[in-house]
Design goal:
330 residues; alpha/beta; Peroxisomal Thiolase, Chain A, domain 1; globular
Length: 330
């Protein structure tokens, strides 16, 4: 008698898309604003340029464009979507959720749309939430979006933070599909998310509706964030791989949150991941928070590096602290 593997519902990545503001700000441009230089920024971060949102370019508009491109890549019409989960720390308004504005822009009138706020870990959190909802049968097709306009909350006199961040959006389409319960089957295999609020003062925005009645500016203790990032990210990546019974050598592509080249290289070394298997875009995008993973993923899919059937590991850490990892078979 032949054993036939059982089947499970998997959240399969059907398409991806991204959007960037038109304006590019180089390190040379940055040196005209604050006391810094291209050499100083590249040596400490690996960043050479970033995109900055202009008049009329918002978290909503970038998210909508990325979503349209993801749907086109998936070969789907917007009416197929019955769930939108948008990760952002820079919404257009305090409320309503920016996801509902994107829903309206796309002409979708069914299902649910809401935001997830986990800062730089937002996309990993959003994938985890959407995956759970698809597996539970609450939706069949989801848009998972990371979109940010961090330039709007930067203190442009603080060279320790303003040189790091950029604006942009990325999106993936997830479809609920039934497949054999095997590692080779497509879809999200494992997700693991964590947080620890004891370190909230290491990376935060010093304003909000309930406290200062203002938006506020981003504040960060860079060394503390770096120290925790390498430890937490490598731990959750290891946790996810062990849960899926996968070794680092079996992962085809490591698509990390694009925060700092030193963090990415340090994490990869700790886990024994070869540098040529890291998708890195922060040299051109900077840190785009929740948008950074889907931006990098879209670029690597569209240029042919990431192909169907390959195993991809996403990871991120953000203010809170929040951190997490998702392992998916594309």
């Amino acid at each position: 008698m032949i054993d036939v593997p059982s089947t499970v519902v998997r959240s399969v990545i059907a398409g991806c898309g991204s959007a960037l503001p038109q304006r590019v700000m180089t390190n040379a441009d940055m040196s005209k604003i604050v006391d810094t230089s291209d050499e100083w920024i590249v040596e400490r971060t690996g960043i050479k340029a970033r995109h900055i949102a202009g008049e009329g370019e918002t978290t909503r508009s970038l998210a909508t464009l990325a979503a349209r491109r993801a749907l086109e890549h998936a070969g789907l019409k917007a009416e197929a979507v019955d769930l939108i989960v948008l990760a952002t720390a820079t919404p257009d308004n305090t409320f309503p959720a920016t996801a509902t504005l994107v829903q309206a822009d796309l002409g979708i009138t069914r299902g649910a749309a809401f935001d997830v706020q986990a800062v730089c870990s937002g996309f990993v959190y959003a994938l985890t939430v959407a995956d759970a909802m698809l597996k539970a049968g609450q939706a069949s097709c989801a848009l998972v979006i990371g979109s940010e306009t961090f330039s709007r909350i930067l203190d442009w006199t603080d060279r320790g933070t303003c040189v790091l961040f950029g604006d942009g959006a990325g999106a993936v389409v997830l479809q609920a599909e039934r497949h054999a319960d095997l590692p080779a089957s497509p879809g999200i295999l494992i997700s693991r998310i964590h947080s620890d609020g004891r370190f909230s003062d290491k990376l935060y925005v010093d304003g909000g509706p309930s406290t200062t009645k203002t938006v506020g500016h981003l504040r960060m203790e860079g060394r503390e964030v770096f120290k925790h990032a390498v430890t937490n990210i490598s731990a959750v990546m290891d946790e996810a791989m062990k849960a899926a019974r996968v070794t680092p050598g079996e992962v085809d592509w490591f698509v990390p949150h694009q925060a700092n080249r030193r963090i990415l290289e340090g994490t990869a070394r700790k886990l024994g991941i070869a540098e040529e298997r890291i998708v890195m875009t922060l040299d051109r995008h900077g840190n785009t928070s929740a948008a950074s993973i889907p931006l990098a993923f879209d670029e690597a899919v569209k240029d042919g590096r990431i192909r169907k059937g390959q195993l991809v590991l996403f990871e991120a850490m953000g203010g809170g602290f929040t951190w997490g990892a998702v392992l998916a078979r594309y």
